[in-house]
Amino acid sequence: MDLEIFLQGFIPLATAHFIALLSPGADFFILLSTSSKQGKLAGILTAFGIAISNGIYILLALFGIMFITNNQFLFESIKLLGSLYLIYISYHLINSKKRELFKNIQTEKQRKKELLNNFFKGFLSAILNPKNSIFYFTMFSISSNEHISLQYQYFYASWMFFAVLIWDIFIVYLVSHKKNRIYIQKYSNKIEKISGFILLLIAILILIDIFCK
């Protein structure tokens, strides 16, 4: 398969996915709260729970897209709905308000008591969020076409899974240092707004591709 075709699918997918990771959602705030209150290990366990739930949705989205790629009308309709969903996300990010991210730090005794629950906290947070299934379906609708082999689709899926896991663990390590919390609190809202504009641009490019073929 031509490298250019592979990159045409991979670059927008990887960009949109990473921007979405930068944009705080329910999983992000649970990870932030757990890490700041209960420590590094609790945060890492939560990160693994979130990543595995995302992995399940990634596989479901991958196999779902595989079944409809031969139906051009249905496939283009899903791409259209996906671009509208990205616009919806970008709207809320651009209009987001600044909020308090860190509060109610727990004691060591409380941390140990809740340690075993952190994996399931992360897992349930992500698996019970219907927006995750919509998001990953959108991601694969961006990247998929009849020229991209199943092998490369699996690469896309693996990339997104490990991107979620590595990013979440990175956040845990950032939050474990008190000085970093100051910067996260200071710049998080600006990051949300910038992320919103980038996702809006990606959505517009998808719409152009749909209607200007």
Structural commentary:
By secondary structure, the protein is mostly helical. The protein has one domain. 83% of the residues lie in helices and 0% in strands. The protein is built from 9 helices and no strands. It has helices at 3-22, 26-38, 40-68, 72-94, 108-114, 118-127, 130-143, 150-175, 178-211. The longest helix is centred in the last third of the chain and has 34 residues, at 178-211. The chain is globular, with a radius of gyration of 18 Å. The two termini are 22 Å apart. 32% of the residues are buried.
What's the Cα radius of gyration?
18 Å
N-to-C order of helices and strands: HHHHHHHHH
Q: How would you describe the oligomerization state of the chains in this entry?
A: single chain
Overall mean pLDDT = 77
Instruction: Give the tally of structural domains.
Output: 1
Number of helices: 9
Main sheet: strands, sense, barrel: none
Alpha-beta content class: mainly alpha
Summarize the amount of helix as a percent range: over 70%
What is the number of beta strands? 0
Distance between the termini: 22 Å
Overall shape? globular
Strand content: under 5%
Which segments are poorly predicted (pLDDT under 50) over 5 or more consecutive residues?
Answer: none
